[in-house]
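Our preliminary data section would be incomplete without showing what the modeling component actually yields. Below, a chain of 355 amino acids is followed by its predicted structure, encoded as tokens that our downstream tools consume directly.
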Amino acid sequence: MSLLDSLNLHQFTDFLTLDIGIDLGTANSLVYVKGEGIVLIEPSVVALKQGMRVPLAVGSEAKRMLGRTPGNITAVRPMKDGVIADFDITQEMLRYFIRKVKASRKRFPPPIRTRVLVGVPSGITEVERRAVKEAAQQAGAHWIETINEPMAAAIGAGLPVTEPTGSMIIDIGGGTTEVAVISLGGIVVSKSVRVAGDEMDLAIINHIKRKYNLMIGERTAEDIKIRIGSADILAEEKRLKIKGRDLVAGLPRVLEITSEEVREALVEPVAAIVNAVKQTLERCPPELSADLVDVGIVLAGGAAQLRGLDTLLQAETGLPVRLCENPETAVALGTGKTLDSIELLRRLDGLNWER
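Predicted structure:
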């Protein structure tokens, strides 16, 4: 076979291949298609009917059912702390996402194989990593590789990960906070803690339950966090009316809370994130520490948007801290940029993408 024939065959094979990057998050899952960008953002929620394993609803439709289902329907989140908590349901969720992406594409002929790059927490075990790969394969992927979420987030945030200089990323998602210092295409030091957006929501639920004898749901807690939550003192404190069930009377009740008490509720999870950052900096080689004085720290992930978190971290570390341009989509964009660049794929530590 001539070189020209070989190139043509290679191009044709690539044309029949669908390359997908997935940020399989605890709260939300994002899908990136090579050459097209992010095509799907859905909550990582599956609704099931009692006695059946086939999903009744997946994603946004299933999330609307959380806390509102009758006895014969359950809405569950199959991912916990960034890893698979229910293998079968995660597999069904992945299958739904992959099929939805394929169905939305108008390209002809349809792809004959699907390759998937999945972002996973850096602190997961090999058993958990294999579970992610197996779930993707069972969902229809022909080839599957994983990339550590802090690396993907750093690439998505536009950091020079392959350069001989230190870059520090803090990716705060729904289930995990990933802290990493990256240089020359590899993670030099990292820390993964299972404290993130979900723990913040739980802290708010427990605080309101303890202080006011009022029970609120996960969605209400998340709304409180987004609308008036903060990690540091605000220039103008906020107030918000919330609704829940009175634990004494058992009746619905309306209550007004302030951003000060929400900040008080978030002290513990925020402190755990700050400690993870400090522990990572303590283990950082001196040359890379010197780089961080100039370039600072970059925040990514949905929960990194908590008001005042950047200023608090700056005060605690003495380093400049900034939120990346697209914090919620950084990991998915990172998987996509990696898929788009064969040279980048080859230079990243631990990736073995089969052509």
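The chain is about 40% helix and 25% strand. The first strand starts at residue 17 and ends at 24. Preliminary results of this kind motivate Aim 1 of the renewal.
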